[in-house]
Structures are given as C-alpha cells and as structure tokens.
Amino acid sequence: MTRELHLNAFLMDTGHHEASWRLPESDALAALGPRHYVRLAQLAEDAKFDSIFFADGQVAIGTGEFRASGQLEPLTLLTAVAGATSRIGLIATASTTYNEPYALARRFATVDHVSAGRAGWNIVTSATQEEAANFSLADRPLQATRYERADEFLDVVTKLWDSWADDHQVGDKEAGVWGDPTRLRAIDHVGTHFRVAGPLNVPRPVQGYPLLVQAGASEQGRAFAAKHAEAIFVAHQTLEQAQEFYADIKAQVAAAGRHPDHVVVLPGLVPIIGSTEAEATALAQQLDDLRIAGYGLRQLAQYLEVPESELPLDEPLPRYVVEQERREGFDSRAKLVIDLAEREGLTVRQLLGRLGGGRGHHVLIGTPEQVADHIETWFTQGAADGFNIMGAALPSGLETFIETVLPILRARGLFRTEYAGTTLREHYGLPRPANRWDAAVGAPAADVSAEAVSHA
Ligand SMILES: Cc1cc2nc3c(=O)[nH]c(=O)nc-3n(C[C@H](O)[C@H](O)[C@H](O)COP(=O)(O)O)c2cc1C
User: Which of 133, 188, 274, 442 has the largest CB neighbor count within 10 A?
Assistant: First the structure.
C-alpha cells in the first residue's frame, strides 16, 4: 500500500498570523461565533482533509487590545461543527491539568457518539503560569508533575472508555434485558492523583477511544507521546530538526512496544501563497506591516519566561535567556525560538517579525509549487507523515491552499481525492483499540443496583 499524506486544518480565529484580523477581507469578530468555524470545517471537508483542530487555553490572553483574548470552548463548539459536517475528523484541545478524568472522558465519548466516530483529543498539560490562577492554585504545577498527572489521567480515561464492553447494550425487549451486566465494569482506579470507581455513564466511544493527539516536544513531552499519542502536532523551523524529531519519536514509540506507523507526525506549516514569488512576498509584507509589536513581545516573553522589559527590541536575546537550560512552561517552543534567533543572528524586533506568522511554526512564503515541493520533501525525507495546515488568514489562506496546492499534491499521487473510511481513525489509518477488559479474565462486574443507576 502506498503511504498516504495526512492533512489537518488547524483553525484559529481569523488566521494564524497575529495581524490577520486587520486585513480588509477579515471579519475581526469571526472567532466569537460558531459560523466562521462551521464554514471552515465544511471547506476542509469538501477538500477531504483528515481533520480540523481547535487549540485552547484556560485563561484570557493579554488585555484583548491587540487580538481576541478568548474564544469559544472547543469541545462544545465541535458539536455544532459535527452537526454541519459528516466525514471530517474533529479534534479539540483539553487539559489534563485542569480537568478531572471522569468528566472529560464522558465529554469526549459524547462528542465521538454525536459525530459518529470523528472525535480527537489534543492532550495538553497547560504550560502557562496564568492558567493556575484560574483553578485555585498559587503556582503552575511543575512540568514533571503535569506530565505525571497526564500519564495517570490517560490511564483513567482509557479504563473508563473500556468500562462498557462494545456489546454491553442488548436491548432485548422480550427478555426484559436492556444490557448485559457482566459487560459493564467498575474500574476501581486508585492512583497518585485520582481515585475513580467507574464505570462511565456513556457507552464506549464509536472509535473505541477518540483519536489521542499530543503536542509537547520536550524530553518529557516526547516520552508521554511515545506512550500515548496516535498523532503528534509539532513545530519545526528546519528539515533537519524535523528529521531528528521524527526519527527520535518513532524510535521511542517502538521502544514503548507500539508500531511506529501507529503514530502520525504532523508538523505545522503556514503557507503564504502567491501565483508568483513576488505576489507571495507582497502578501506576507501586507500582513507584516499590520503587526503590532506589543502583541508579539508579550507572547515571546511568555515562551521565554522573562519580563518583557528584559527584551529590548533592537538587541539580540540576552545571553542569560539563551543559555537557560530548560523552562517549566513552553520548553520546546522556547528552544525553537532561541535556536532561530541564534542561527540567523536576529534582534528581538527581527525575531518578532519571524514569529508573527505562526508563533514558531514553519512559515513558507512562495508559489503553490514551492509549497507542494516542501510538503513532498518533508513527507518523503523522514520528517513528517502529514501537516498541520495553518492558514495565515482564514478563510482565504485555507481556500488558496485548497485551490492551488491540493491539485498539485493530487497530481503527484500524494493526497486522497475521496475519503476511504468514515471515522477519524480510519482517515489516519489507525486501528480501533481493543477493549482491555475483553482480554482480562475474571474482571469484576460493576455493582450496579437499581438505586445506583436511577438519578433522574
Ligand atoms: C501545534 C501545537 C498546538 C498546541 N496547542 C496547544 C493548546 O491548544 N493548548 C495548550 O495549552 N498548549 C498547546 N500546545 C503546547 C503544548 O501542549 C506544550 O505545552 C508545549 O509544546 C510545550 O511542551 P513541552 O513542555 O513538552 O515542550 C500546542 C503545541 C503545538 C506544537
């Protein structure tokens, strides 16, 4: 079987370029309602993308002066998108640091049922200091603690999704048996962070588990991904960095006893496309001219975990910032940004210009052929299984990609012309996980008395 390229449409506001909302064509308030996202998802579905994706955080970003400081909650938003689409996969971000496994397992299982097997979960541990203050914590938990909790969180949610056997529901009216009680199991999880009895109160998801996606690339992030992730979102600036990550993560997946093909690596790509290079450059310049330095500086300071006042615009990054070994928050993104500044000898002002398009994701300014060449090179040279396509402006960036780059990829036999399957897992060529309890001999049945199940 020929290897198939995968495309995920990463949808954010009016686009990933931080000044996209200021373009004449943009609806600056689009991100505040569902319609914009439904339209984008339909566009991506018509083009046979594998999935769409919403990022998320648990805090208002900045003051809201230079860009929307918040957005709709993505898992809820996905239910509106699910109702308006039929095939495309639907991936939402949710934090393992600021949720409880039972509640989140239930919500994702529900979205998987509502969408007939199209749900995916971007598992994040929440890197910012500010989010902690919204959850009754004085401090953000340390990175090691966040990943340790995430690991146990995954153990609990997958146990909960397995707590209903696929064939639990019988619906035998004659016999008066709604479900087979031996096929509904307690999980009785007792761990460091969680004590959860189970079973879940939603049937096993259509896909067994929603697709498990992960987006952290530090040492601990990679170890977590190798154990749990089936798709990985990642940011890279160079082919060499992408190849290093790809080889390392596939080796770690194999070392964890999993098949390397069962993890799909999707670097971000922000294509700024023109029919000539000059046209593409002019579009990039138009966006760059609309940037507001204050917005980018705040974000850069957050990645680097220094006050904005430590980053004078016309100087290189301070040495102590460059030499800091690791950070508790966006560790891998900080390293990417520092590496970019060092490699190209950039001042802070120049660095902000390079980050404005995609926060450190690869920005490619060029013709449709150049974008297609980039995708083919990374796909065939051991750097990617597909891409997170990040329109600099939305919808125009996605429309242009679909109209001009996809025909080239299809002519080269790289991208599908029709969906082969119906679930998100099928689009990504990933197996439906077996139910762990089916294999377990003598697993205890849940104590489901009439009182326990009747709350209504
Ligand atoms: C494509 C992509 C999307 C991400 N989306 C989110 C998100 O929605 N919410 C979030 O809190 N972090 C998000 N992150 C950040 C990661 O979850 C992680 O915190 C960050 O990459 C640092 O991880 P590390 O500590 O393993 O390096 C995203 C990262 C990438 C590369």
Answer: 274
